[in-house]
Amino acid sequence: MSHSYRAEDGGGGERAREEAGAALVLRKVWSRSPAPERRGRYVVVAGTPEKILEHLLSDLHLEAAQDKDTETLLDDFLLTYTVFMTTDDLCQALLRHYCAKNYQGKEDDSDVSCRKRKVLHLVSQWTSLYKDWLHEDEHLKQFLKTIYRNVLDDVYEYPVLEKELKEFQKILGMHRRHTVDEYSPHRKNKTFFHQFSLKESWLQHRGTMNEAEEMFCRVYITEHSYVSVKAQVTTSAQEILKIIAEKIQYPEEELALVTVTFSGEKHELQPNDLAISKSFESSSRMFVYRKDLTDSLNPFAENEELQQRSVRILGINTWDLALELTNFDWSLFNAIHEQELIYFTFSRQGSAENTENLSLLLQRCNEVQLWVATEILLCSQLCKRVQLVKKFIKIAAHCKAQRNLNSFFAIVMGLNTASVSRLSQTWEKIPGKFKKLFTELESLTDPSLNHKAYRDAFKKMKSPKIPFMPLLLKDVTFIHEGNKTFLDNLVNFEKLHMIADTVRSLRHCRNNQFGNEVPSKEHHELKPYVHHLHVIDNQQALFELSHRIEPRV
Asked: What is the spatial distance between Cα 443 and Cα 451, in angstroms, rounded to a whole number?
């Protein structure tokens, strides 16, 4: 090996210290096969970004099935490269590898075409892993155009690139080409660039929200309580008002949607206003007020309507309710890109817009927890409150059976909230079999031994399944904080492999999905009820309610 490489014999022993100036550190690992078949392979321990990429490209196999270790190295690299290089750096490096005329004077034609195909294979894996996630990057757009033009040029000299050319046309979402020749840069074909720019609709900039993008907005009913509405950017104020009116059982015509800035200025939204953009422009909160604008509504008032709220949930089948929660969580979980976990952990600049789907699922987990407490504490009648607690215990059990551990955890934590767990009169009246079931469910959320109970149970569950996301993030953060990202100015690739391995568990969770079950049609109000949870987001307010319904003796 040249002086810039360092190989280590990894018989499980300690890692030797890198030699000064080493640009790539490899460790030899032996397979566990019996003596004659034992094979050694090198894994990347650390290196400069350029040398790791070079090693990765030299290791790729094009014709044969990729060996598992090379596939893992490629996946590790693509998932984590943003930690140690920019997208522009990667594009430039790939172009250098692709365009190099004759690498170190040691290549013949077949070597050159093989190297070009390896670069194209990596680009193909990159774009399929990221799908539309990276496409706002100007460097990437430019790079894809440049490399496509290069392939068009090269396909004459290296006909073996024809297959990659077709693959590239698919990647770019381009229409089937009539002939390759028609689009050759040799013809200085201006229309090619024009047609290309028309195809850039897939290169949406994530910084500007597109119309179909959904997000959660909070519509406050009082200072401390809100209804969560998942809506598109194009949703009108009237549509949002309709959802809220149904949610709080109040006549829509008596309500108005108002944005209130932090300095206290109020602005009433007209029915056709785009509610979400209005509330974001002025960094204000959205409130629902009575039409006369005297005040916001008070959902804490002891009146008949409030009693009806709790009765509504009591009339809904628990399995259907759990299924609707699970379907909603799947829509959020499926939208999360693996890379969001990396951004979330390393908190690079711009990470807020790079973790939006992950943030939605975490926010939802918090809201389900608050929803459980809110529903129970707004129920002033003891007998109905007992029914509600039993109902939530059953819903938690159903979420577990539906392998939705995110809502399962949230409901159990909601029942364990201090303001709910102090309701001794309520808990005394819960039948023994429900208490026993709750104890079993609770034991799965036990944090001791690094959440061993949950981890063991989750491992045994078949996919598809939704993990408890905060714990997965905690695992990634633990690896990140316990290991340096750079060792002697080299990228600590062992650390990045551990992180990528944890992040890859999302794939396993999403396996074998055949479209989710659909809850029974009996309750047309079930979907809006579950999608737009009404929660009190203030522990002090929840405690006040708790002491009002069961004063301290």
From this structure: 10
